[in-house]
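Entry 14. Structure prediction run on the chain below.
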Amino acid sequence: MKAIIIAAGMGQRLRPYTSDRPKCMVEINGRSLIQRQVDAYRAAGIEEIIVIRGYRGRQIQIPGITYVDNVDYQNNNILESLFCAKEHLFGDVMISYGDITFHPDLVKNLLVQQAPISLVIDPQWAQVYEGRDDHPIEQAELCNIMSIPAEGMLRRDKIHRITNVGKHVGAERAEGEFIGLCMINAPALARLCAIYEHARLKGLDQPYVNAPSLRKAYLCDLFNDAIRRDEFIHPYFFEEGLWREIDTVQDYERAQTSVTW
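Output returned:
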């Protein structure tokens, strides 16, 4: 198992805290977001960690980490940033956004999930957005989930399957928020890479799923493309209060008291 952290963004809404540093280097209670993630992965026994850098990326210098540079970070988005690390996209992998912090237990519990693709989903997402004035719900990567009876199991047992995920879902029908942390096994990762390469043959500036272009696509666009091809994507639900996204100054200030791990 390896971990890939997508940390190329500029973090414009976090200024002035990102005026002189990458977004992932902003500190919450004395530790940067990137160091917190590295510590969480290492606590779960994951030692191979790849960080995709962009804005002021040379400031990210953590021993024992492999770095990949997204030199076009100003013009592309999360999906293209991920595929800057194409040579590392094989085997079992965890992927995380660089602007989140999460409890180490999330990684440990994610490791035991059996689905080909598991997305960490916050079912209490609405509580996180209470009073979060600078980051509207419309920007949350929400999801729809279908529950079906598990074959050969008791009637009350269900298998949960994500049917739609991204900023287009809308709060009215959402059953959770994708926090930006997921696990993908080797066969599923190979299928996702093949789907991406098929889309890339059409051109970076062609529309892709819910994005205006592949160049501007999110990771969720790739997931939705895979869902349309009958890929099984499993939601891993967890207890509230074990993660935070740090996207705005308000998020940063609130995290100083809400992030206690």
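The radius of gyration is 18 Å.
Filed with the rest of this week's runs.
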